[in-house]
Write a structure and sequence with these properties.
About 35% of the residues lie in helices and about 25% in strands. The protein is α/β, with parallel strands linked by helices and about 290 residues long. The chain has one domain: Ribokinase (UDP-N-acetylmuramoyl-L-alanine:D-glutamate ligase, 3-Layer(aba) Sandwich). The protein has a 9-stranded mixed sheet with strand order 5-4-1-8-9-10-11-12-13, sandwiched between helices. A 4-stranded mixed sheet has the order 3-2-6-7. Helix 1 crosses helix 8 and helix 8 runs antiparallel to helix 9. The model has no long low-confidence stretch (mean pLDDT about 95). Bound molecules: adenosine-5'-triphosphate. Adenosine-5'-triphosphate (ATP) binds next to helix 8 and helix 9.
């Protein structure tokens, strides 16, 4: 099985501040760092490090940030298919971390928004029945819809992480096999029961430090989080989803509680380290986690 992740690619610029600035304020920051980011990149990198063959499709601009993303991605064990679009600025996220451990994130989406259905779906030409399509909420409605429809036609499995929330999502449920949501997203989308009623077979509900649940029409299985020192939760949800998908994919099984246990270990590693992709387990650590 191969995973095709189609989503956004960004560079994350993270800095620590004592507290969030109030309007008009000028404040000092520290610990400025830069990392690969964007939900598309996050999920693809974690899937690939966890050992599942992975293709990433994302748009960048013809600029320094786009080139840096390409250079950094070349160090990851995945097939990175970056579409370089003229006249477009590569996406970036500014992440403010406070001393209290809260974060505030501002993300641009010019490049993600410029990925058209034609260009995005071209990457699925190589996909075959049983492969996996993974999408998130960063692409525009026509592109996400076309990807899911194409995947259905091919006979691929489809997994969606509906974040950031967008108003067009409800039309996608009949095309979605698996959904990964946190509590707030589940509530905003009408609740888990509603998602199952709409035809989604598997709902994975993440509950932060309280763990996660695997919910189907057959019932609910709860999996606890792995206790750890919490440093930075950025990307924990992406790492969790990617690890669960890779664990089930590598073993050739449907989503199961063991996949969520593997995901809980990988996500705990992520929250115990600072950064986004830099905080994800490396391939060796993933190999140990997936043997648990
Ligand atoms: P984010 O948006 O921060 O990436 P999310 O809201 O999508 O995350 P969460 O439910 O917060 O997702 O977290 C995903 C998983 O990460 C949890 O199911 C859990 O396994 C792990 N996790 C999150 N917070 C903690 C914590 N405090 N301790 C241990 N594990 C955690």
């Amino acid at each position: 099985m191969r995973a095709f992740v189609v989503g956004n690619a960004a560079l994350d610029e993270t800095l620590s501040v004592e507290d969030f600035p109030s309007p008009g304020a000028s404040i000092f920051g520290s610990n400025l760092s830069r990392d690969l980011g964007g939900k598309g990149i996050n999920q693809a990198v974690a899937i690939a490090r966890a050992g599942l063959d992975c293709v990433l499709v994302a748009a960048v601009g013809n600029d320094a940030r786009g080139r840096e993303i390409a250079e950094r991605l070349a160090r990851e064990p995945l097939d990175g298919q970056l579409e370089t679009l003229a006249g477009i600025t590569t996406d970036a996220s500014m992440i403010l971390m406070t001393l209290a451990g809260e974060n505030a994130i501002i993300t641009t989406r010019e490049a993600a928004d410029a990925l058209t259905p034609d260009v995005a779906c071209r990457c699925l030409q190589d996909a075959t029945r049983g492969d996996l399509l993974v999408v998130q909420g960063n692409l525009r409605e026509d592109t996400t819809t076309a990807l899911l429809r194409t995947a259905r036609r091919i006979g691929m499995q489809t997994a969606m992480n509906p974040s950031p929330l967008q108003s067009y999502f409800s039309a996608l449920w009949p095309l979605t096999d698996m959904i990964f949501v946190n509590e707030g997203e589940a509530e905003a989308l009408g609740g888990v029961e509603h998602l199952l009623d709409e035809g989604i077979e598997t709902v994975v509900l993440t509950l932060g430090g309280a763990g996660a649940a695997l919910i189907t029409r057959a019932g609910r299985q709860d999996v606890p989080a792995v206790p750890c020192d919490v440093l930075d939760t950025t990307g924990a949800g992406d790492c969790f989803m990617a690890t669960a998908l890779a664990s089930a994919g590598v073993r050739g099984v449907a989503m199961d509680a063991r996949a969520l246990q593997h995901a809980a270990h990988a996500a705990a590693h992520t929250v115990a380290h600072t950064g986004t992709v830099a905080a994800f387990p490396d391939a060796g650590t993933f190999a140990r986690i997936l043997r648990l």
